[in-house]
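Table S2 (continued). Query chain:
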Amino acid sequence: MDRVALVLVIIGALNWGLISLFNFDLVATLFGDYTFLSRLVYGLVGIAGLYTISLLFREREKTVE
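Corresponding output:
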């Protein structure tokens, strides 16, 4: 679940970077402006962002090599 959330957050960050640098919204280009699919992607990215906040407060697992 953590990896899925991180991938969605990265997609959202890249999309915001494209918007700020080039005024290009990749999600809207792929799925349309304010369509169900684009709103779903934006919603999933937002939920993933909220979920990844929990990563800040988790104990790191120690790996044994």
